[in-house]
Amino acid sequence: MRILFHAPPLLGHTLPMLPLAQALLGQGHGVAWAAGEDTQAVLRGHGFEVHPSGPGRAWAMLELARLWPERATLTAAQQVADLGPRLFADCYAPATVGDLLAVLDAWRPDLVVHDVMAHAAPLAAAQRGVRSVSHGFGLPRPRSSIDGAHARMARLWQVAGIEVPADSGNHRHGHVDICPPSMRMDEPVPAGPCWLLSPTSGVAREMGARQGVVASFGTVHHQQAAFDHLRGVLLQGPWPARLTFGRPLDPALSWPAHVHAAPWLNLADEWARCRVGACHGGAGTMLGALAQGVPLLLLPVAADQFRNARALRAVSRQAAGRSAPGGRSTSGVVSS
Fold first, then answer.
1. Could you give all domains of the chain from N- to C-terminal order, each with its CATH number?
2. Could you tell me which residues come within 8 angstroms of residue 60 by beta carbon, excluding any fewer than 6 positions away?
């Protein structure tokens, strides 16, 4: 079977799909990715065939600013309801569908597996008569996100001469859900087949003594005061700490002996060994850690991170994690 994977060119949407893609590749299926420039190197590094498709994040953010100038006056929390539909349906989808059609014509997959925010994928698949399955990246999307994307995608479906299906084509032939049932809130449950999949990557948890703190500063929203507070606490010790910043390190900075700092760490391996974690609350990072039994401190600063923190607080009662509003001093929360 030939299976084409596609996600927006953001690691937070791409990495949660890797375990399924790797498992299918390992079973002998033909697997390829259609991907924007920001994630192509990572995917090729995992041994996948990659077909360039759609713009990168830099272009999309400029387009978002052009189409939504009011965003500059809004706080991160005020942007949450509209950010997903505007970025993924208004910006990425129209600029990606043509490339996806070309990949479908050239590579001729039997199935398309796409991130739920990759709205061009089900449209392109429908135009070519290919089955498509959506893949979650975290908690199921709230109704406002579903309805917002649906309204924006309707025109593209109409131009293609196809009646727009429910949820702008997500779940056309099923959905892969990596969210633990206990963390669902009040999101609508889509009709059709749904397959529950663990968010772990298959890395076995080390059952011996757990060591130290792992802190991930994300790959997008890493210039935040909350992270500066956390870094300051970890630099003081006494805990062994491994920090990943999602960007090149400043060569002028020096690090004490108990701290290992890196632009990038394989978090699946890190969660298997550490005692406690701290992160922004991005869905893939959060679910990957919790699936490995790692208690978390969440510092939400943007997008779905606030909602993920609420879901964690609702189910954990501080057994699985705690959160602090982005920008607030985290010293007391981390120390405790």
1. 2-196 (3.40.50.2000), 213-335 (3.40.50.2000)
2. 9, 87, 91, 92, 95
